[in-house]
Amino acid sequence: GENVEQHPSTLSVQEGDSAVIKCTYSDSASNYFPWYKQELGKGPQLIIDIRSNVGEKKDQRIAVTLNKTAKHFSLHITETQPEDSAVYFCAASTAFNDYKLSFGAGTTVTVRA
Amino acid sequence: DAGITQSPRHKVTETGTPVTLRCHQTENHRYMYWYRQDPGHGLRLIHYSYGVKDTDKGEVSDGYSVSRSKTEDFLLTLESATSSQTSVYFCATGTSGGYNEQFFGPGTRLTVL
Predict the structure, then answer these.
(1) Is the pLDDT of residue A4 over 70?
(2) Candidates B1, B32, B33, B102, partner chain A, best to mutate (most A CBs within 10 A)
(3) Could you give the CA distance from residue B52 to residue B43 in angstroms, rounded to a whole number?
């Protein structure tokens, strides 16, 4: 089955700096890659997603890039703010696996004021 | 949380006892999922449902069963709880099984002593 690895496990950045989280996947058939943000005591919430026919997608301060050849994708957060402090999960899925999501282990991001 | 509630929110039980967790949604979403979240493992799919009385296994289904008799309710049962099932359990819903957002509930923290 799909194996998604996520790095780093923790990330501390100064407010205003950028944060980058990287994920790799094993199943070359995977074609959907969402990112979820989980705030303390809450369930995860989708913040951005990308499909395999797109190399990059942006939404305000958040962007995701995908390299299908290398089988890795990344989340970029620019101009970080205290409210960006949370746990971030990457995931991957494919139609051949009934679109079931395989999640990475998560990255705890702390934005220092 | 897209109209998703989970009950109970916290539970402490003893090894060998049966436990049932309930997920209730008001969004009329077709798909429902049960995940467990453990440090270092991210979110792992236990079981999911693609319609009333239609369920299938996820990657960590051993020791768990599910039932869905109504669109709005998805039950997760631990027939005989073990300490390895101590975890935070999340229910999620989705409009379809494809490239669509999953909406997560607030979670249930289960401790098996």
Answers:
(1) yes
(2) B102
(3) 24
